[in-house]
C-alpha cells in the first residue's frame, strides 16, 4: 500500500493512498506503519482517499493508536469519509480517536 | 418456666463462662446451675471459640484479662460471628475502663470481680432474654423478607399476565412490536392495544407510580377501566343513534359512528379512578394514542408521560409528542386536551417508560431523552422488532448490567410502505475463491444487485452498511471456515423477494457457531492498552442488517444468511 508522509514540526502526517482499508490490505498497512510510528509521538492519518473500511481496518487503526499510546503519543484522523465514519460510529471508534475534517485542524489540535 | 429457659422451646439456657481463674469458673458454674442454666466452661477466648461457641449458646460471661486470647479479642469475634449474642464482661476493678470500652463494642454489660452472685444471675437472665428476643426478631425478619420476595413474584406474574397486552398483527400498514422487562422491584408499567376496527387501533402506555403488588394490582384495575370506558362510550353512541335524536357528536358525515375520542376515554377513566388514586396517594402517567390508517393520523392524549418519539421516514427527523395534561390522579379541573398529527409510510412512533431515559450507568449518569432521540434517529428505519431488540442491547451496554432499577417498557409502531415489491423478484449468484483479494468483487456484486432497488426502499447509507456486512461475512469464511486457505470455494446467492433482500453465503469449511463469539464490549469505555484489534466482525454484521442466521447441513455445507428488510428510509 502506498503511504506518503510529511513532517510538520514534531507532527507526522501520513496520507493513506488507498480507497480501501479492509482485511485484504490491513496487515500490509500495519507492517508499514509499525516502523513509521516508532519514532513519532504525534501522528495524523489523512483518510481522505479511503472510501471503504471494515473491522480489520478499524482494528489496525486501533493497533496504531495502542502503539503510539505506549510511547505516550496520540493518533488523530482527518478527512474521514461518510461510509467510513458510519462504521466508526457503529463501533464507537469516534469516541476513542479524535477526528478532524482537515489535516490542518488535526495538526493544530496537537500544537 | 424458669427465666433461664427459651420461651419458644422451653429448653434450658446454655451459658458459657470464659475465665482463666479455675476457682471463679467453678464458683460460677455452681451458682448458675442452681439458677437453671446449662453451664459450659472455657479457660480462655481461644478455647471458647474453638470448642464451645455455637448458636446453642445464649449467654457468655467473658473475663477481660486472660492468657492466649483475652476477653476483648474474643468479644470482637463473637460480635462478628454471633451478632445476637452480647457477652457480659467480667473485670477486675482496675480494668473498668476496658469493660466500658467493651460495651461500646457490643458487650451486654460488665460485672466487677468478685461478682455479687444474685446480681450476676439476674444480669445473665436478662442477657438471655435479650438474646432470645434478638433471635426471634431475626427469624421474623427472614420470614418478612421471604414474604416480600413472594409478593414481588406475584406482582411480576400479575404484570406479565394482566398488564401487558399483545399487539394486534392484522392492522394493514401497521407493524407493532413491544417489550417489557420488569425490574427486580416490579413497578406498575402497563401497555395495551385495543383494536377498534380494521383500520384503527388504540395504544396505551402507562406507568403507575409505586412499586410491588399495589401498583401491579392498580395497573390491572386501570386497564379494566379503559376497557369499560371504551365499551360504555361506544354503547352511548349506539343508543344515541337508535334514539334518533339530535346527537350529531357521535356521527360523521357518512352517518357512521365516530369512535369515542381518546380525551373522552381518559376523562371517564379519571372520573372513575380519581378517588382510589387519591386514597392510595398514587398517580399514573400515560400516553393514550389512536392510529387511524385511513386518515393517516395519530390522535393522542398525553398525561405527564415521557415524550413519545415520532421518527419521520422521509426526512429522518424526529418530533416529540407532548401534551399538557397532568397525570391521572391529580385533582385536575381542566378537560383533557388531545392532539393529532399526520404520518407517512416509513414513519415510526416510539413509546416508552421512564425506565429507559432514567436508566443509569455505573457513573450514575442517566441515559436521558437526548440519547434516546439520537438512538431512534439512527435506528428508525429498521423493522420495529429490530429497533426494540437494539434498544434493549443499548440499555444493557449503557447500564453495564442486565437488570434495571426500573421497568423497561417500549413499543415501536411502524407505518409500513405502501409500495408493492413483487416486481423486484430477482436472483443473482457469485462464486469466488477464498482469497481476501476477492473481497472487492463481493462488494461490487452486492452494489450492482442493489441497483435495481429504488432509493426510496434502500437508501445509500444502508447499501454502505450492507457492503461492510458482506465483507465481514466473506472475511470470516476465509479466515475461520477455511483457516486462511486461498483456493477454496465460496458461493454467494442474492435474492430479492417481496419486501426483503436475502443474501446467502455458502462454504464447505469449518462450521461457525455464533454462540461462541463473546459479545463486543464498548470500546469507548476501555483503556487504550486493552483495545481489541479484532472480534468486531459479528457485531458489525448483526448491526448492519435486519437478520442474520448461521446454519450447517449434514454434508458440511455452511450457510450464513443475511436479511435486509426493504422500507422507506433516508438514514441520516
Account of the 3D structure:
The complex is a heterodimer of chains A (111) and B (572). By secondary structure, chain A is α/β, with parallel strands linked by helices. Chain A has one domain: STAS domain (Transcription Regulator spoIIAA, 2-Layer Sandwich). Chain A is built from four helices and seven strands, in the order E-E-E-H-E-E-H-E-H-E-H. Chain A has a five-stranded mixed beta sheet with strand order 1-2-4-6-7. Chain A has a two-stranded parallel ribbon with strand order 3-5. In chain A, helix 1 runs parallel beside helix 2. Chain A is globular, with a radius of gyration of 12 Å. Chain A starts with a strand and ends with a helix. The mean pLDDT of chain A is 92. Chain B is α+β, with helices and mostly antiparallel strands and 572 residues long. Chain B has three domains: 125 residues, 3-Layer(aba) Sandwich (Rossmann fold), CATH 3.40.50; 252 residues, PPM-type phosphatase domain (Phosphatase 2c, domain 1, 4-Layer Sandwich), CATH 3.60.40; 144 residues, Histidine kinase-like ATPase, C-terminal domain (Heat Shock Protein 90), CATH 3.30.565. Chain B has 13 helices and 20 strands. Chain B starts with 13 loop residues before the first strand and ends in a 7-residue tail after the last strand. The relative contact order of chain B is 0.07. Chains A and B meet through helix 2 and helix 3 of A and helix 11, helix 12 and helix 13 of B.
Amino acid at each position: 500500500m502506498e503511504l506518503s508522509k510529511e513532517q510538520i514540526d514534531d507532527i507526522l502526517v501520513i496520507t493513506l493512498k488507498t480507497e480501501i482499508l479492509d482485511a485484504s490490505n490491513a496487515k500490509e498497512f500495519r507492517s508499514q506503519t509499525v516502523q513509521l510510528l516508532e519514532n513519532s509521538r504525534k501522528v495524523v492519518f489523512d483518510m481522505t482517499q479511503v472510501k471503504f473500511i471494515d473491522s480489520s481496518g478499524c482494528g489496525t487503526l486501533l493497533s496504531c493508536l495502542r502503539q503510539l499510546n505506549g510511547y505516550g503519543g496520540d493518533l488523530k484522523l482527518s478527512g474521514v469519509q461518510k461510509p467510513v465514519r458510519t462504521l466508526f460510529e457503529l463501533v464507537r471508534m469516534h469516541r476513542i480517536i479524535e477526528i478532524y475534517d482537515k489535516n490542518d485542524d488535526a495538526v493544530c489540535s496537537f500544537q | 418456666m424458669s427465666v433461664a429457659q427459651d420461651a419458644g422451646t422451653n429448653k434450658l439456657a446454655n451459658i458459657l463462662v470464659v475465665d482463666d481463674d479455675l476457682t471463679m469458673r467453678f464458683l460460677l458454674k455452681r451458682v448458675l446451675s442452681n439458677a437453671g442454666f446449662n453451664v459450659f466452661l472455657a479457660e480462655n477466648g481461644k478455647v471458647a471459640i474453638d470448642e464451645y461457641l455455637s448458636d446453642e449458646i445464649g449467654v457468655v460471661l467473658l473475663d477481660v484479662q486472660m492468657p492466649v486470647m483475652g476477653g476483648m479479642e474474643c468479644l470482637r469475634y463473637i460480635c462478628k460471628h454471633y451478632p445476637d449474642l452480647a457477652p457480659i464482661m467480667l473485670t477486675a476493678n482496675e480494668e473498668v475502663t476496658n469493660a466500658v470500652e467493651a460495651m461500646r463494642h457490643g458487650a451486654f454489660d460488665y460485672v466487677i470481680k468478685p461478682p455479687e452472685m444474685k446480681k450476676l444471675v439476674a444480669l445473665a437472665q436478662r442477657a438471655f432474654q435479650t438474646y432470645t428476643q434478638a433471635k426471634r426478631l431475626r427469624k421474623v425478619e427472614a420470614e418478612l423478607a421471604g414474604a416480600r420476595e413472594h409478593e414481588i413474584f406475584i406482582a411480576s406474574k400479575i404484570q406479565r399476565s394482566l398488564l401487558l397486552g399483545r399487539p394486534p398483527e392484522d392492522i394493514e400498514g401497521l407493524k407493532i412490536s413491544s417489550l417489557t422487562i420488569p425490574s427486580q422491584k416490579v413497578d406498575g408499567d402497563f401497555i395495551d392495544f385495543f383494536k377498534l376496527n380494521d383500520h384503527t387501533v388504540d395504544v396505551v402506555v402507562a406507568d403507575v407510580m409505586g412499586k410491588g403488588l399495589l401498583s401491579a394490582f392498580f395497573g390491572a384495575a386501570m386497564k379494566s377501566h379503559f376497557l369499560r370506558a371504551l365499551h360504555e362510550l361506544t354503547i352511548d353512541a349506539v343508543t344515541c343513534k337508535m334514539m334518533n335524536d339530535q346527537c350529531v357528536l357521535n356521527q360523521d358525515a357518512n352517518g357512521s359512528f365516530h369512535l369515542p375520542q381518546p380525551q373522552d376515554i381518559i376523562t371517564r377513566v379519571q372520573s372513575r379512578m380519581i378517588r382510589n388514586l387519591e386514597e392510595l396517594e398514587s398517580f399514573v402517567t400515560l400516553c393514550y394514542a389512536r392510529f387511524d390508517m385511513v386518515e393517516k393520523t395519530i390522535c393522542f392524549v398525553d398525561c405527564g408521560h415521557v415524550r413519545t418519539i415520532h421518527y419521520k421516514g422521509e426526512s429522518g427527523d424526529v418530533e416529540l409528542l407532548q401534551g399538557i395534561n397532568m397525570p391521572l390522579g391529580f385533582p385536575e379541573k381542566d378537560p383533557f386536551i388531545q392532539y393529532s398529527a399526520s404520518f407517512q409510510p416509513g414513519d415510526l412512533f416510539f413509546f416508552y417508560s421512564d425506565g429507559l431515559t432514567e436508566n443509569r450507568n455505573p457513573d450514575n449518569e442517566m441515559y436521558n431523552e437526548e440519547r434516546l432521540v439520537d438512538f431512534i434517529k439512527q435506528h428508525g428505519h429498521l423493522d420495529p422488532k429490530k429497533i426494540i431488540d437494539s434498544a434493549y442491547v443499548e440499555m444493557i451496554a449503557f447500564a453495564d448490567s442486565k437488570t434495571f432499577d426500573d421497568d423497561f417498557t417500549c413499543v415501536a409502531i411502524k407505518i409500513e410502505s405502501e409500495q408493492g415489491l413483487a416486481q423486484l423478484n430477482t436472483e443473482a449468484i457469485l462464486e469466488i475463491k477464498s482469497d481476501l483479494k476477492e473481497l472487492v468483487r463481493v462488494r461490487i456484486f452486492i452494489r450492482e444487485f442493489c441497483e435495481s432497488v429504488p432509493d426510496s426502499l434502500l437508501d445509500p447509507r444502508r447499501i454502505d452498511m450492507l457492503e461492510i456486512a458482506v465483507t465481514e461475512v466473506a472475511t470470516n469464511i476465509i479466515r475461520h471456515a477455511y483457516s486462511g486457505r486461498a483456493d477454496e470455494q465460496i458461493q454467494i446467492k442474492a435474492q430479492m423477494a417481496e419486501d426483503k433482500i436475502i443474501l446467502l453465503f455458502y462454504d464447505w469449511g469449518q462450521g461457525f457457531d455464533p454462540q461462541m463469539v463473546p459479545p463486543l464490549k464498548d470500546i469507548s469505555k476501555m483503556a487504550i492498552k486493552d483495545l481489541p484489534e479484532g472480534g468486531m466482525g459479528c457485531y458489525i454484521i448483526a448491526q448492519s442488517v435486519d437478520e442474520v442466521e448461521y446454519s450447517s447441513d449434514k454434508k458440511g455445507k455452511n450457510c450464513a444468511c443475511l436479511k435486509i428488510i426493504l422500507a422507506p428510509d433516508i438514514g441520516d
